Amino acid sequence: MSAPIAIDAPVAMRPLPAPTFWRRALRHRSFVLGGVLSLLVLASALISLVWTPWSPYEIDIASKLRPPSAVHWLGTDSFGRDIVSLLLAGARSTIMVGVIAVSIGLTFGVTLGLIASARRGWTEEIIMRFSDFTFAFPAVLSAIMLAAVVGPGMVTSIIAIGIFQIPTLTRLTRGSANAIWAREFVLAARAAGKGRFRITIEHVLPNILSILIVQVTIQFALAILAEAALSYLGLGTQPPLPSWGRMLNDAQTLLFQSPMLAVYPGAAIAIAVLGLNLLGDGLRDLLDPRLARER
Known about the structure:
This protein has 295 residues and is mainly α. It has a single domain (28-49, 71-294), classed as MetI-like fold. Helix content is 72%, strand content 0%. It has helices at 18-27, 29-50, 83-119, 121-135, 139-150, 154-181, 184-191, 196-232, 244-251, 260-287, 289-294. Helix 3 (83-119) runs parallel beside helix 6 (154-181) and helix 6 (154-181) runs antiparallel to helix 8. It is elongated. Residues 1-12 have low confidence and may be disordered.
């Protein structure tokens, strides 16, 4: 997975006022392009909830490996399923896994990071060693172990990806929070008699929220890649549920006969990951006051 965003100095990323933010955002090419690509993927997933050209679960062997036509816009796969329908439904599965997995990582990672930063001492040491231990188990390895116990499936991939998200977000939260704890306004709050929990909620968390938002876009992109990899290996989303990784797996034996079967899901994964990474880069530039002053 990805390492947390480096923090060079204890300067919080404070959001700009809404009108100023959106004026700058619409002039930021990475943010605009990333937003458009991300919205395209999200729209595909939402559209699949109410409409697809054909049922993504319908098998029609008589229509297998059809070329693109007015009936099947991108053709059909080896089971006669419509490619466009599979891509739309696959976006839904991918986003579902990504959202839940990142939510798991965000909930536990931010909580542990804030506790480690607030408590320090042995509490911090135990939490950070737990993070180091978790890093030793990549998402694929975790999925293999879970599959051996509960079997492969979407739940397995969600748990495996979510667990691997935790240490990254724990480290990022702890590092960012430590910088805020050293700020004058936090020292003033402590002098005023506020407890650590209240300071964390009222002062620390709001000042690191922008950093977390940027990192979440990166973690979401990594979750999409991990989900595709697990589904490709047969550990993630299982048939008949469509998945971009599963489509790649089905296409690998037909690369010479019908290479576009692998190109379509591969392009979908690339668009989703590229869009989220560009969006994250744009948000970082827009929310970091140091970069804002340089522009």
